[in-house]
Design goal:
The chain is an alpha+beta fold and 309 residues long. It folds into 2 domains: 161 residues, Ribosomal Protein S5, domain 2 (2-Layer Sandwich), CATH 3.30.230; 128 residues, GHMP kinase, C-terminal domain (Alpha-Beta Plaits), CATH 3.30.70. Helix content is 35%, strand content 26%. The structure holds L-homoserine. The site of L-homoserine has 13 residues, from helix 5.
Length: 309
């Protein structure tokens, strides 16, 4: 049996504009790595947190990776404990699913230490318990794509049905992360508890249209549907320059542009030849509002978390 394993879990774009808390896609260009090492007592010890954000709690109960692994040790009645080394590639409070990626990488690494490894659905449930520590609520739109890879729809919380959705070839995702932090809790607290029926109908049509466009390679339908009429209008005030960034993306041919997860990162879907131009326009728009940013372009391949060492 293995004594040590390291796993990588990709960042993710939660909501993908039209599926608040239920739809997300992985983003391979960045992610977190977690090394899990067997220890003698049945506890979790977080020995190192390094990388782009190291200012995170090391008490297992307050750390997404720690809590996910604690749940595994308790529920599976493992006869060993785990030391975790966390290497953050995803900035804190960025809307890129960093807390989810750490939890996912941790459960995938620990899974490699088990005599009988678990399937992804069971790992998902442990990672969800970790994610709850960070955001205060259970939502799966970062956990599921980080674990499974690609564009992922999750139906149900207690017994989640996880479905990977095909993405038309040639689509790219542009991600622009302005250098500011936006806590998920804050971005959730400002949401109104009630919304107009007409908006629910519009958003339902957009979600259905977007998924149908993905299944049928209909880029025109994706272009018409990839619009968030419920959450984005409430949250965009939290992101300086958001409208200019979106206008920059759409004006350069993006299929859609919205907030990644709870923000402040903004994503755009586009066809491959347009990606560089769209990225430049989005970065310039943030700059014009006083914000430097990091930007990446990625394909949407269905590659989820995996053991790397
Ligand atoms: N779906 C969640 C939200 C993602 O938008 O609040 C948070 O990472």
């Amino acid at each position: 049996m293995r004594e040590v394993a390291t796993a990588f879990a990709p960042a993710s774009v939660g909501n993908v504009a039209v599926g608040f808390d239920v739809l997300g896609h992985s983003f391979q260009a960045i992610g977190d790595r977690v090394t899990a090492r067997r220890t003698a007592d049945r506890s979790v010890c977080i020995s190192t947190i390094k990388g782009v954000s190291s200012d995170l709690p090391t008490e297992p109960e307050r750390n997404t990776a720690g809590m996910a692994v604690l749940s595994m040790i308790r529920d599976l009645e493992l006869d060993f404990g785990v030391e975790l080394e966390i290497e953050k590639g995803i900035p804190l409070g960025s809307g890129l699913g960093g807390s989810a990626a750490s939890a996912v990488a941790a459960v995938v690494a620990v899974n490699a230490l088990l005599e009988r490894p678990l399937d992804k659905l069971r790992l998902l449930k442990f990672a969800m318990r970790g994610e709850a520590v960070a955001s205060g609520t259970v939502h799966v739109d970062n956990i599921a794509p980080s674990l499974y890879g690609g564009l992922v729809l999750t139906v149900g919380i207690d017994n989640p049905n996880v479905k990977q959705i095909p993405v038309p070839e040639g689509i790219r995702c542009v991600l622009v992360h302005p250098h500011m932090m936006l806590p998920t809790r804050q971005a959730r607290e400002i949401l109104k508890p009630a919304i107009a029926l007409s908006d629910v109908i519009w958003q339902s049509a957009n979600l259905a249209g977007f998924l149908t466009g993905c299944f049928t390679n209909d880029l025109q339908l994706i272009r018409e549907s990839l619009e968030d009429v419920i959450i984005e209008p409430q949250r965009k005030v939290l992101i300086p320059g958001f409208q200019a960034v979106k206008d920059g993306a759409m004006g350069n041919g993006a299929l859609g542009c919205s907030i990644s997860g709870a923000g402040p990162t903004v994503f755009a879907w586009c066809e491959a030849p347009d990606a560089d131009r769209i990225r430049a326009a989005m970065v310039a728009a943030f700059k014009a509002h006083g914000l430097d940013s990091d930007a990446w372009i990625s394909t949407l391949e269905p590659i989820g978390a995996h053991v790397v060492e």
